[in-house]
Amino acid sequence: MDLPVLDISPCGVLYLASLTQHHGCEIHPHCSMNLLHGHFGPWLIVGREDLFDLLSCSVSTCSGAWTGHLGPHWQLRSSSGATGLCMDPMGQLVARLVPLLLLLLPEQGAEACGTSRCCFQDPPYPDADSGSPPDSASGPRDLSCYRLFDAGFECSWEYDGPAAGVSHFLRCCLKSGRCCYFAAGSATKLQFSDQDGISVLHTVTLWVESWVTNRTEKSPEITLNLYNSVKYDPPPSGDIKVSMSAGQLLMEWETPARQDGAELQFRHRTPGSPWKLGNCQHQDDAAFGENNGESCLCPLEIDTAQEFQLRRRQRPRPGASASPWSSWSRPVCVPPGTLPQPEVKFLVEPLASNGTRQVTLQMQRPQLQLPEGCRGPKSGAEVTYHLHLHMLSCPCKAQATKTMRFRKTLHLSGAAYDLAVFSCNRFGPGPNQSLHIPADTYTEPRALNISVRTSGTTMHWPAQASGLTYCIEWQPQGQDGSTANCTLTTPKDQDPTGMVTHHWSQASGAMQQTTCYHIIVFASSRPEKPNSWYTLLSAYHFGGNASVAGIPQDVLVSKGGLDFVSVDWKPSPLSTCPGVLKEYVIRCQNKDSNQVSELSVNSTETQVILRGCLGAGANYSVQVRADTATMKGAWSQPRHFHMGPFGTCAHPCPHPVPALLLSFLEARGSRLGSGPAQQTSWRRRRKRKKPWW
Questions:
Q1: Is the pLDDT score of 592 beyond 50?
Q2: pLDDT on residue 112
Q3: Is the whole-model pTM more than 0.70?
Q4: Which of 475, 479, 468 is nearest to 536 (CA)?
Q5: Is 511 helix (H, G, I), strand (E, B) or coil?
Q6: d(CA 57, CA 65)
Q7: Number of neighbours of residue 280 by Cβ within 10 angstroms
């Protein structure tokens, strides 16, 4: 009959290495544990079975022939069957420990199984042979047991039957033939340590028995050395870097600590397709040792997204069974190799009173199908769309470009912009569609408050909020912006007049060319953002000596009747500069009496009729000038003419009548019906003298 067993491992093994030296005992060189030396009557001291033969001890100083032998089972046997203790000078400690050990001994036949240790008793269910055969369709299968890094040992298995009411038991048989079990409940995974009664250094046989509805099902058995069967960790999904290399996907990650020399596999699938398995290339320790990393080359799909998962296991050793694979990593989602180009249209509204205009973007987003594991947010396979904004106007500003997430509406100033809409994925930006938003052509129909003196040019405009940065841009009229000049100014103190003043010295040469300039003033509270500017003022200014440059040319005097002449001229160069020319002034001088009359006409007129103010036989000269709102122009060269002997002028010259209006009145008078007024007008016309010519 087998001896009762005292299992002291729950309390820890008693360490008395010094006792072994007094009885000729030798500790195996591979053992680092210290063992209890002693014998307690009929009890068999059992420790851990996961060590080699550790201690052989022959005790001849004690009564009787005592032979202590701690083999694979840490057992002390008595050859005589007598009871007692081997005492020596160091043995007093053993004697003192006996009462404590006796308290720990269970009564013969009592229940001694705990909830976490492997129980060396019969399982609490019928014999497994009464159930389904091993590896049945509904029973436990695919049992795998292994050592975890820094976490003891683990066994896991698959179970396709109903989870309700099932109880799984992990069975283990040691090399000695003794068997135990772990109760796992309905779980299909169980962890244990080397202190739970299972040998981890010697070969053991394990299987799973599942008990449900009075039926027991058994998995196939596996025989292995638990310590040598190591389960590696999967690649850390959050740290996997994905890039493209020579038309393939390159996945790289850092090797988990103390898990070098791994064999790698991947599986991948596209939307609606099953998994496909693939092997990564052999990892060269020399190549990857410096960077402490692993990598895997995977196929790249050009037109569809993919989902990848990777796993690792310890590289098989010659003559040894293969270690289990790690679990699969979390999904690594990869977008298509080629991204479709977005189709974008835009609509620009007129410049509003706040100096901005709304730009509405309409984009047709391509539909991208994703695999099942890549449909969540930030999966890695998603495609995002972005805007790259480039403000072309005001080239002297600090920041001209800005990249932002795509948005349907933008509020931009009246400046010219280049806009690019592009797609982006984990590999970087894709193709883009470029758009050009031209500058707003609206200008205020007024002249700027600009004064030109010998010291330079000064400009004034109403101040806005404090802390604004102003950009003044000017370029010759009709240019495309490539010749634009600009300057930035940030007033520090508030002007008491509520105006902002900017001055250019004569040496700067700003707007010194005799031509029409288009001037735009932009303002921004955050000048580092190109989309923060708004148009404050847009107008024209004629640079240089506008007084001389604006002189009307080709002034012509034509005698149109007995007492009137027609004065014509070509438009002033100032008229091409919107809002600059205010009016024309015509000067008529009697050369005989030096009497001078000045007549003003609208800036759009280029002809005037002088009548009723010309004397018969007198000599006259006519000049024309072009005036702005802030400056009187220079007179044109005088045109001389002579009135004949007929015609009188006994009253001051009336206001001139434009030629078109005169033609209209004469035509209207010719269409009037009979009546006193018509007859009087006609008689007055009949009394006129014949032309002098």
A1: yes
A2: 56
A3: no
A4: 468
A5: coil
A6: 12
A7: 19
